[in-house]
Amino acid sequence: MIIHDFEMDLTTYAEKGLDNDFPAYACPNPECSSINILHRHGFYWRYGIAEEDIEYIPICRLQCPVCKKTFAILPDFLIPYYQHTLHTVLDQVENVLSFLRCNDFCALGVKTGPGSLLVFC
């Protein structure tokens, strides 16, 4: 898997679809001796979810002409093997942590305060 910054968000990437500017890469396999550029090997489609926005987007696949391994070019706003975007996941984590209070941790028996790792008060 190759993570690439397409310099756009999920919606723009989805609107461009197969017309996105998919870059050329050399084989990232450390065991491969190829100096050639990977060949386009088709696309697969997956969902990307950003808050209320759900898009079905193309993911470009590349194949090395020497070692025959395939690689996907994943947009940097996606997390490998997850449908939710990185931004959406981080926002949700931040929302959950912002609602936690010291009393919530104390009720769970988690130590908070000086000398502890969890200090959200």
Model description:
22% of the residues lie in helices and 26% in strands. It has helices at 10-16, 86-99, 102-107, and strands at 2-4, 39-50, 53-63, 70-75. β3 and β4 (70-75) form a beta hairpin. It is elongated and about 55 Å long. The two termini are 40 Å apart.
Key descriptive features of the protein:
four-stranded mixed β-sheet; single chain; 2 domains; 3 helices; alpha+beta; 121 residues
Summary of the model, kept short:
This protein has 121 residues and is α+β, with helices and mostly antiparallel strands.
Structural class: alpha+beta
Outline the low-pLDDT stretches: none
How confident overall, as mean pLDDT? 84
Determine the number of helices (DSSP H or I, runs of at least 4 residues): 3
Strand order of the largest sheet: 1-4-3-2
Report the helical percentage. Answer: 10-25%
Number of strands: 4
| Rg of Cα set | 20 Å
**Total domain modules:** 2
Oligomer: single chain
Q: Which range does the strand content fall in? A: 25-35%
The largest sheet, given as strand count, sense and whether it forms a barrel, is:
4 strands, mixed
The ordered H/E elements are: EHEEEHH
Shape verdict: elongated
Terminal-residue CA separation: 40 Å
